[in-house]
Amino acid sequence: MLFAYPSTRRAGGRPRHRGRAAAIAALVAVLAIVLSGCAPRPAPAAHPLVGKTLRVVEHELGRVPSPIYDLSAPIVNVKPAFSLNGPQGDWVVVTACGAMSNKRGDVVVGIIPLARYTADLWAKAEAGGFDSLLAECSKR
Fold first, then answer.
1. Are 64 and 56 in contact (CB under 8 A)?
2. Running DSSP on this structure, what letter comes out for residue 111?
């Protein structure tokens, strides 16, 4: 059995529902604009130094950031062992705050050993999950 559907075209060849389709499209566009204002705002991006080694940070800033906090104990449960005399490439920034200008002491960083830096820690650092460990960073 063959079903016959009513024609969607008028006698002049134009579609019957052109006005209705345009009205629906306009309504959808207006709703999208209105509802986008109600959507939650994305979290602020992590500081641009998060995830970089201390050697890279020193190169980008043109100096060693100050102060530097070794956050090994609260994050990866190892004794803090950072020293400015040691290899800077062995440490990764997990939290940072401050302006990246040339003024001394304007960037605060929290670091952990690069060997202990996992994908899970990276994700948490990128989300600002360690900012609360530094008084300077938790105020932003």
1. no
2. E
> What is the per-residue pLDDT across 61-72, written as a single tens digit (0 to 9) for each?
888 888 899 999
Q: What predicted TM-score, i.e. pTM, was given to this entire model?
A: 0.64
Element housing 22 (H / E)? helix 18-36
How far, in Å, CA of 69 to CA of 97, rounded?
12
Q: Is 95 exposed, middle or buried (0-12, 13-18, 19+ CB in 10 A)?
A: buried
Query: Which residue type sits at 110?
Result: G
Parse the chain into domains and list their residue ranges: 54-138
Q: How far is CA 113 from CA 32, 87, 91, in A?
A: 46, 11, 5
* DSSP codes of every residue in 60-108: HHTS--SSEEE-HHHHH-S-----TTS-GGGEEEEEEEE--SSSTT-EE
Confidence of residue 42 (pLDDT cuts 50, 70, 90): very low
Count H helices, E strands: the chain? 5, 3
What is the rounded distance in angstroms from the CA atom of residue 82 to the CA atom of residue 69? 9
CA–CA separation, 69 and 11 (whole Å): 79
